[in-house]
Amino acid sequence: MEDELSTLFKALGHPIRRRILDILKQSAKTTGELNDYFPEVSRYAIMKHLTILEEAHLVVVRREGKFRRNFLNVIPLQEMHNRWVGKYMQTAANSLLSLRSVVEEKGGDFSMAVTEKAQVFRIEQEVFMNAAREQVFKALTERAGDWWEFRLAPQGVPSQFTFHPVPGGQFIEKWGDNEGAVWGQVYYVNAPEEIRLYGHLGMQGAVHSAYTYRLLEKDGGTLLQLSHTASGTIEENWEQEHSEGWKHLLGTLLKNYVEQN
């Protein structure tokens, strides 16, 4: 953990790297697009800065044809926040609604500008967990109800979660006699390496949403990679709310669950 923090602080120690993170906070960029923001800096230097950010897990890279697209990974920053600040703001992280209020109180600085037309957002995050891949996969699926904090049930009404990690299986929340909500429908499984689902994840209206968990064995533990894409009539702040929500669910709740059990 201390070595990870040293790498993180090193990555944050240069103003260009901090500026890169500010840019990626708005949207993912290719390496060439990032280089355009720094006309006084060589492409080689930008690539070196990106390598340092990637080593600190602050940037997640996805190859798209001949392009390298860089995404901000907020989870290491959340882990640092939890260590020194989290206990003072614990009540502010209990739900997506409270996370939304935090963003709005900051004047929307963390949000992408969104028009009323159809939009697309894509979230890429990864978090390392000191647990076996099979354990993490089971926690993500069969044990999801033990740590998944967000609920669609009416306030004050208890609900139960089930998740069947088979093609056609559902991640579903039920309450009452015949009430409930589907958080995801499984359309691909390669246990314990990957599982893909589609589902609205709390969004309403004409929206298509899909998310994927990939689990890689690394350094005696598991590197969990999340990819979440949504398209359609996307309301303002949905991208930020879901990014913060995933960060809290995977980087805090799931990580603590698998490492403490």
UniProtKB/TrEMBL annotation:
Keywords linked to the UniProt accession: DNA-binding
UniProt GO molecular function: DNA binding; DNA-binding transcription factor activity
SMART domains on file: HTH_ARSR
Domain annotation HTH arsR-type: ranges: 7-94
Recorded family membership: Belongs to the AHA1 family.
PANTHER family in the record: TRANSCRIPTIONAL REGULATORY PROTEIN (PTHR38600:SF1)
Protein's name according to its UniProt entry: DNA-binding transcriptional ArsR family regulator
Organism: Bacillus oleivorans
